Every structure is written in structure tokens, then in C-alpha cells.
């Protein structure tokens, strides 16, 4: 294994796994596997890049750090030459972390300095300029992320956010230098050596990320959104350590369903779009907390439909979610809904369903972990890209299961129906 990735949630893991598997033309990408949690066994010999999916984004700081270091140990045992710490392209974190503490712990273990911090993902509208994170044409704290129920982002200055989470120095590589290309980027990194533990790097376009990636060929540790990985496969292919390859597009037949547990604007729009032509079951949080709605309720709804794309969803406005959290407790609501979706997915699998679309980071993690246990912990192989950052994942060989794990903010309006179609027919 050449590249090892530690991702702080499951949808983000799929996102960067897709980036590494796809690579860039003309070289192509790396044979990539996504693991639901830290594997107990060694990786297959033909895997070039391994992505470990953790649920550490909203975990207590000490748990996030401990889990990330365990993931690092496994990846180093597989022979990884380069480690990536992947977090969300909206830099989702509380004031305490977990981005800063995890990045610091990994840097210490790898004896790495001048570690890049770059959440830019231009294909999804995320860019970094003057150290500030933008979502399309809005500053992060004006993009809707300021209302996130778990990690509200109220400051777009990544340097300031990071400085509040770590003890080391935070530098900055501004866009005028980035725009000059790889030689200038490399020179600037060298110039800041010893002066900064972490460097926030501006990036506006894919070509910026490719130039940054080329300058990171020898970096032991890289951190960022999935975009920072765009150019990294090219380094290993150019050096002869890997052969470029195309993504394997594997069709999976069998019934399909959609499980949505995100309150992001994109997911809410996708739900409304889908409801216009397909049956949908809205999950009332109070009914779940009281036990009136269970996994059996949702499975009965899905399996009773003749429609090929039934949807069950718990998504609501950020204000509504906050109200339920205040009434029942944040952790109680989150854990109960995650368990509900995971149990529903497992029951659908047992009922013969083989294509599942899951929206929301926490929901995706709960579903993927449960299905992985049921199927014997197979790695998730990366298939066709549905929308930027969202690939088809397949588990198993003889009777494969296809998953799409969608970050709340990602995907086109017709994503749900499109995902089920690509799973069955290919891109």
C-alpha cells in the first residue's frame, strides 16, 4: 500500500477514495479500497491506497485522537509511504477540535512539520482564499454551516480556527504564490520550514490542487478535503511505484431504497425533488423516541412499494432538529436515529435489497458499519462516480451489495434516483 487515508467520517472517506481511484488524465488513479473502521487483517496485496473510515468528527477529542493513531498504526503496517488526514471540505469541527488535535497527534507520530491544511474542493464549490474558506460565493460562516446541529462553523478564517485547537504555529501560503505553480509552492514550503507546524494553503481551482499535490510528493503527512488528494496518485505513478488504472464500473442488480438522515440544504432539496415522483416516508423524531416508529415500520413501508426507489427520511430544518435535541438530548436523538437507520438497512439486506443510497455522514457511518459486520467486514471497492465526491461502493463478490454514502451537502437535485440507476446499469 502506498497511500493511507484516515477519514473522520464515512461519506468523507468515500469522497477521497473516489478521488484517489479516479486520479487525473492521462495517468488514471490507484486501486483503492475503503474500510469501515480499522481492519483486523492485512490489506490485499494489490491495494495501492487504503481509506479508513472513522466516526471521529464529533467524537470526544481523546477518542478521536486515539482512534486516528490506531488507524495510523495499521496503515503504516501495510507499508504506506504517505498518510492523508481527510476532514470535511467545510472544515467541520467544534472549537476544541477534532481537526487540530488529530492533525497534531499524527504530525507528532510521523515527525512531520510544514503540514498542509487545505480543505478546498472546487468541484463542490469549496475554495480557500487569503486563508478563508468559501462555499461557492459565501464565506463559510454565511453558507448555512453556521447552523449545523453538531459542528456549527461561525468563523471562515481557517488559520484562526486551527490556532484555537493546537499549540503549534500556523502559517499561510497565499494564492499569488500558489498560482505560480509547483516550483514556487515547493520553494515557499522550504522557506517556511521550521517556522510553522501547519500551513493553510489557498486553492481556487483544480489546477491549484494539482500543483500543490506535485509539491507534496515527499510529504509524510498531508491534510485536507478530498481535493488535496487529486495530484497524489500521479506522483507514485510517475516514480514507477504504481500503475495508473481506470475505475472498475461494477453493475449490481436487486431492489433498491434510499435512507436519508441529513438536515443540510442540499439533502432537503433532493428529498423534495424525489418525493414528487416516488413514495416517501417522513420519520417523526418524537414517534421514534417513543417507540411508535421502528425499523420494522420503515421496512414494511419500503417492501410494500412497487416503486423502484422508495425513500425514508428523518431530515428536517436545523431549527426543528435543535428543538428535538433540546427536548430529548442531542446524543439520545443522534444515537436513536443512527440505530434506526442501521437496523433498517440490515433488515432490507436480509429481505434481498442490494442497492442502498444513504444521505448524511452520521447515518452513513452507522449503516456502513452495520452492513460490514453482517457481510464479514469486506473492504468497500470504489466504482463509478455518481456526482462529484460520491462513488458507488461495492461490498462482497458472489452476491455484491452497492452503497452510495452521500455527504449532506453533496449531489445534484436528482441524486437519489440517479444513484440507484448507476448502481444497476453503470455510469
Q: What is this entry, summarized?
A:
With 427 residues, the protein is α/β, with parallel strands linked by helices. The chain is built from 15 helices and 18 strands.
Q: Any overview of this molecule?
A:
38% of the residues lie in helices and 19% in strands. The chain has 427 residues and is of the alpha/beta class. It folds into two domains: 3-238, Rossmann fold, CATH 3.40.50; 256-425, Molybdenum Cofactor Biosythetic Enzyme, Chain A. The strands form two sheets. The chain has a 15-stranded mixed β-sheet with strand order 9-10-5-11-4-1-3-2-16-17-18-15-12-14-13, sandwiched between helices. A three-stranded antiparallel β-sheet has the order 6-7-8, with no helix packed on it. A hairpin with a 5-residue loop joins strand 17 (390-395) and strand 18. The longest helix is centred in the C-terminal third of the chain and has 21 residues, at 330-350. The mean pLDDT is 93.
